[in-house]
Design a protein that fits this description.
The protein is α/β, with parallel strands linked by helices. It has helices at residues 11-26, 40-47, 68-89, 102-111, 127-133, 165-169, 172-179, 198-205, 208-212, 228-235, 239-242, 254-260, 270-279, 295-305, 320-331, 333-344, 351-364; strands spanning 2-6, 30-35, 52-54, 93-96, 116-120, 138-141, 156-158, 186-191, 217-222, 245-248, 263-266, 283-285, 309-311. The protein is built from 17 helices and 13 strands. Strands 3-2-1-4-5-6-7 form a seven-stranded parallel beta sheet, sandwiched between helices.
Length: 365
């Protein structure tokens, strides 16, 4: 059996695809990946050892209609290229995880009669996936809320968001050793994504004295490549303070960092939330305010409603509520235990297996 997976642009699309590929390959399914030649997927998928086929893809902005003709031309050309590729490799099923590149890949599958399965990671379905949902045999969701965008409810299955095996396999001991954090210390992990989150980084810098006032607290602060130097200058950490404030530009060891954490402050992208849920880490979520259709707020609210986290809006980062909420999580062991218990009930660990079941069923049809 051969499955072609496709997705790109952000970690939120790519990581769930890689997690699903891991399960499919364990079952003996051959997996190949279709993505953009210069997207993040071209690097990350190859690192995962998955054969990669590049296709050009381009989106357009509804506020700039002059961008539409060129985008349609690029996608039409890539649809033809994908059809030619499919004729050569003969996939049994094609799976889309979102991002512009899934449009030509999904259209090619439909035109050639190849079963197409779609996975939506966020609580609000993106424009690309709304279009592709009409062509899919199954539409798999992380959040039931997104089902309102699917006209045929019989296609919908709520699977959750697949998480890479490395997130589950990392241990607290490995993470603590990697970071130099003592076993008996409390650890707060802060991350705003690979590029960073300027407002979140500045808000954390403003908490420096308060956070370092907890004698046993270690702060692992992943600033992102864009803000690393600025944060370092703003914090001006002494050698003694650097023993407990671990400033990191970027790490490919996030599974170990998450395994080591007692609490986390994070944006609320679907992939990040799924990984936080997988590790059952008590969380303060700060949704990215410019996310399409405000989907990070809806993502976070679903997690908060389940009792797994607190949410602070980006607009409130400079208000006392942010610092107070973070400190409450650090200080209140019962609150952290309650969030951990609620997160474990989410059964995130089943998502990749459930999605793989649906993909294989579609292929057999």
């Amino acid at each position: 059996m051969l499955a072609v997976l496709s997705g790109g642009g952000t970690a939120g699309h790519i990581n769930p695809a890689i997690a699903t590929a891991e399960v499919l390959r364990e079952r003996g399914v051959e997996v190949q990946f279709a993505g953009r030649p210069v997207g993040r997927e071209s690097e990350w998928v190859k690192l995962a050892g998955i054969p990669f086929k590049p296709f050009e893809a381009e989106g357009f902005r509804r506020s700039h209609p002059e961008t539409i003709p060129h985008a349609l031309l690029v996608d039409a050309k890539s649809t033809g290229a994908a059809k030619k590729w499919f004729a050569e490799i003969k996939p049994d099923v094609v799976v889309g995880f979102g991002g512009y590149v899934t449009i030509p890949v999904g259209r090619a599958a439909e035109k050639m009669g190849i079963p197409f399965v779609l996975h939506e990671q966020n609580s609000v379905m993106g424009m690309t996936n709304k279009y592709l949902a009409k062509k899919a045999a199954s539409v798999c969701l992380t959040y039931e809320r997104a089902a309102s965008a699917v006209s045929d409810a019989s296609k919908v299955v709520v699977t959750g968001c697949p998480v890479r095996a490395s997130i589950f396999s990392a241990t607290r001991e490995e993470g603590r050793e990697l970071l130099g954090v003592p076993d008996d210390a409390r650890m707060l992990l802060v991350t705003g994504g690979s590029l960073g989150a300027l407002h979140l980084n500045n808000a954390l810098c403003a908490m420096k004295e308060r956070l370092l006032g907890y004698d046993d607290l270690h702060i692992v602060h992943v600033t992102g490549s864009r803000d690393y130097e600025m944060v370092g200058e703003k914090l001006a950490l002494t050698p003694d303070e650097l023993e407990r404030w671990h400033l990191i530009e970027y790490t490919n060891q996030m599974p170990a960092c998450m395994a080591a954490a007692d609490a986390i402050v994070s944006r609320a992208g679907a992939s990040s939330l799924a990984e936080i849920s997988a590790r059952a880490i008590p969380a303060v979520l700060v949704p990215f305010p410019a996310a399409a259709e405000n989907h990070q707020v809806y993502n976070a609210q679903s997690y908060v409603d389940a009792g797994c986290a607190r949410m602070v809006l980006d607009a409130d980062l400079d208000a006392p509520v942010f610092a107070d909420t973070v400190c409450e999580l650090i200080e209140d062991a019962d609150l952290r235990a309650s969030m951990t218990s609620a997160a474990r009930a989410q059964k995130t660990q089943d998502a990749a297996t459930t999605l793989a079941d649906i993909i294989m069923k579609a292929a057999k049809k």
